[in-house]
Amino acid sequence: MNKKILITGGSGLVGSDLVSALLEKGGYELFLVGRNETLPEYNDKVKKIKIDFAADWNESELPPDLYAIIHLSQAENFRDFPGKAKEVFYINTLSTLRLVDHATKSKINHFIFASSGGVYGTDGMFREDDRGGYTKEMGFYLGTKYCSEVLLENYFDLLNVIILRFFFVYGKGQNQSMLIPRLISRVKDGESITLQGQSGMKINPVHVSDATKAIIASLNLQGSHKLNVAGPEVLSLREIGEKIGTAVGRIPQFSIDETIVPKNLIGDLSKMKELLINPSIKFEDGIKTMI
């Protein structure tokens, strides 16, 4: 019997890749939640449910007998503060509470939540048990993710809650406002990339296919966990720009700002490798699909 899985944010980079991977794997009946105009068409094993988390909705609209809820939704206007603050909170935080509460009452096995490595909030390489705490500098969007994590911790003993902290996911078809597509555009157009210090911040971005594999692996976890999902290489912004330059055949241009000390955001992979997967896509290979 196919396992029923509800996926929010199914039209996004990770969501669309996840749906394709689950369909290829087989054994699942998928329900995609979103506004109808944003959801792509799939086969009859994928059903669409029209819900706008920023508006009124009712838990009765969700299908019965679910095995898991994978909550990937995030507000499109997450950078618009305070203009879209209420919408961002409704989609990123209030919907999380309502969905996990529904999962508990309906005895759903797994609740998987897409958070961000940015919730650590400071400079360094971070393990899941590091507790940075929210600061104003993190901004409203990361504040909503942090709030969601705090709410979800209260459900850890009631069902399998898996919080996945993603570090700079990238891949083909990604929104052009995100970091890696912006850097590709700047290199292609001959525009300079501003670096804090000589090399800029260091990150370990994860390709969408590795992110998807991590989500699928989390469906088999027992117990509740917080897990980093990051890529296998730690790269400075300069190194990322140079690798993009090699891929597009242009020498990247950099401008240096020595007045700001870069703050690195690197996810420790120990628990990811132990409980989920060992990420395998190197950056120079991952960006080839985007160029």
Summarize this structure briefly.
The protein has helices at residues 13-25, 85-105, 139-153, 179-188, 208-218, 237-248, 270-276, 283-286; strands at 3-8, 28-34, 46-50, 68-71, 110-116, 124-126, 160-166, 169-170, 192-196, 202-203, 206-207, 225-229, 235-236, 253-257, 265-267.
Number of domains: 2
The SSE order reads: EHEEEHEEHEEHEEEHEEHEEHH
Oligomer: single chain
CATH fold annotation of the largest domain: Rossmann fold
Poorly predicted parts = none
- CATH homologous superfamily designation of the largest domain: NAD(P)-binding Rossmann-like Domain
Structural class: alpha/beta
Strand element count: 15
**CATH level 1 name of the largest domain:** Alpha Beta
Rg result = 19 Å
Q: Within the largest sheet, what's the order of strands?
A: 3-2-1-4-5-7-12
Q: DSSP helix count? A: 8
Q: Identify the overall geometry.
A: globular
Largest sheet: 7 strands, parallel
Quote the average pLDDT.
94
Per CATH, which architecture of the largest domain?
3-Layer(aba) Sandwich
Could you tell me the strand content as a percent range?
A: 15-25%
Q: Could you estimate the helical fraction of the residues in percent? A: 25-40%
